[in-house]
């Protein structure tokens, strides 16, 4: 069993990128992690990790060992989960990471229904517009919007959300309602910087296309700040309808250029654990996908 534990520790070090991060994830001391990897290297008679001031880099042998070890660990974990969860409701703690805009795209009342349907499940919902370290934070599922980086993690597309030009009636009354995409060049655009967004946009209408660069004096990377600026009447932005759902329904915000389409935003579920996806992470992904499909 001790040898098996060393392989599991090595896989954790490989994924975390450092002995310290792996130790935090395994809830053990850093020296124990270092000794486990050294013991494995001695047993196999080859170097698995190259240590330098820039961190750890796996050797060719180390990469091959990780790939085979991860497949075995995933198979064992999946078998264990099937046995433990047979006929039982979801339980334990689920750690979910997402950009803060998630709570706008998928309404929190829907999340309440999910929690009530799974009374033995606890959820840590980490809403952060920055980049969390999914492995170090012990994330079970991450909800990502826009284009995915090639991280090597398992990913599943959950759906798409519509994007449009959104501003307040007061702003458009004063600045004029744009009739063509080019008209936006004369407006105080709030530039929302995130994957799948920014300054460059392609509008389309019945086969006609317009590619525009929409510079703005105000550039923001946090969804709530974008909302505050737009609703305060500073200027319009391009964002998902869900980000301004309640305001669009009440009339506090309106969509411009309704006859022009923008590329939709893809919403992904990313599973840092590799090919094995826990039952609770899979259930949460199913819930989000259902919530997206039920949106009008």
Automatic annotation (TrEMBL):
Domain of life: Bacteria
Family annotation (CDD domains): PBP2_CrgA_like
InterPro entries membership: LysR-type_TF_proteobact-type, LysR_HTH_N, LysR_subst-bd, WH-like_DNA-bd_sf, WH_DNA-bd_sf
Presence of keyword Transcription: yes
Pfam family, one: HTH_1
Residue ranges occupied by any HTH lysR-type domain in the UniProt entry: 1-59
SUPFAM superfamilies: Periplasmic binding protein-like II, Winged helix' DNA-binding domain
Entry GO MF terms: DNA binding; DNA-binding transcription factor activity
Record keywords: DNA-binding, Repressor, Transcription, Transcription regulation
Family: Belongs to the LysR transcriptional regulatory family.
Record's protein name: LysR family transcriptional regulator
Organism: Serratia nevei
